[in-house]
Specification:
It contains 6 helices and 7 strands. It is α+β, with helices and mostly antiparallel strands. The protein has one domain: 3-Layer(aba) Sandwich (Chemotaxis protein chec), CATH 3.40.1550.10. Strands 1, 2, 3, 4, 5, 6 and 7 form a 7-stranded antiparallel sheet that branches. A hairpin with a 2-residue loop joins strand 6 and strand 7.
C-alpha cells in the first residue's frame, strides 16, 4: 500500500497539529506557571518497525504515554520523550528539588498528566476539524527502549506510523520528543480520506 501523502495533505496535517500544540502549550503554561512553547516542525510516515529504529531502537531508553483513539478511524497515539528529558519535565512539574535519578509513582503521574494534555490537544484538534465521533482511552505510562514502546500486538508490516517531531521549550529547558500515531491500513486510509475531504471543503469556502 502507498502511504505517501501529497504535499498539500502533509502541509495541512502539520498545520492542524501545530494548532493542537498551541492549545497544549497554553494548558501547560497555566500548569507550570511559565511560558511553554510547543511546535511540530516535521511529520513523517513510515512502518512501525522503521519508526522504532528511527527513534533509537534498543539502545535508547524512553518514557511514553499512550492513548487509544477509537471511532470512524482508530489510532494509538504515543507521546515519547528520552528518559533523561522526561525527568526534566518532572522537575518542571514538581519543582527543582526533585531527585532526577529515577521515576517514582508521583513522577509517573506528573508525566502522564503532561502526556494527557499534549495528546488530547492533538487528538481533539484533529477530531474537531475532521468532524468525527470518537472515544479516547485513559493515558497509560510506560518505560522501555524504543522497540519495546513501539511493539504492537498485530502485524507490524500492516501498521502505518505518522511520526511527529516535537520541540518543547520552557524556562532554561529545550526538550525534543515525538508523537507517534499508529494506525492499521484501513484506519489510515479512512484518515487520509477525511483529510482530503477537509482540504476540498476548505478550498470551496
Amino acid at each position: 500500500m502507498n502511504i505517501v501523502l501529497t504535499e498539500l495533505q502533509k502541509e495541512t496535517l502539520e498545520e492542524v497539529f501545530n494548532i493542537g500544540m498551541g492549545r497544549a502549550a497554553a494548558a501547560l503554561s497555566t500548569l507550570v506557571n511559565e511560558e511553554v512553547k510547543l511546535s511540530i516542525p516535521s511529520v513523517r510516515l513510515m512502518r512501525r518497525k522503521e519508526a522504532a529504529l528511527v527513534l533509537g531502537g534498543t539502545s535508547r531508553r524512553v518514557c511514553s504515554i499512550t492513548q487509544v483513539l477509537r471511532g470512524e478511524f482508530g489510532a494509538d497515539a504515543i507521546l515519547i520523550f528520552p528518559e533523561e528529558k522526561s525527568l526534566q519535565l518532572v522537575r518542571l512539574m514538581l519543582g527543582e528539588s526533585v531527585d532526577l535519578t529515577f521515576v517514582s509513582e508521583i513522577e509517573r503521574e506528573a508525566l502522564t498528566e503532561v502526556g494527557n494534555i499534549i495528546l488530547n490537544a492533538c487528538i481533539g484538534t484533529i477530531t474537531n476539524l475532521l468532524e468525527g465521533e470518537f472515544s479516547i482511552s485513559l493515558p497509560v505510562f510506560k518505560q522501555g527502549d524504543c522497540v519495546e514502546i513501539m511493539q504492537g500486538a498485530t502485524d507490524e508490516q500492516e501498521q502505518v506510523v505518522m511520526l511527529l517531531h516535537i520541540d518543547f521549550s520552557v524556562e532554561k529547558y529545550e526538550i525534543s520528543g515525538h508523537v507517534a500515531f499508529v494506525q492499521d491500513v484501513r484506519s489510515y486510509q479512512g484518515f487520509v480520506e477525511r483529510i482530503e475531504r477537509f482540504i476540498q471543503k476548505a478550498m470551496r469556502s
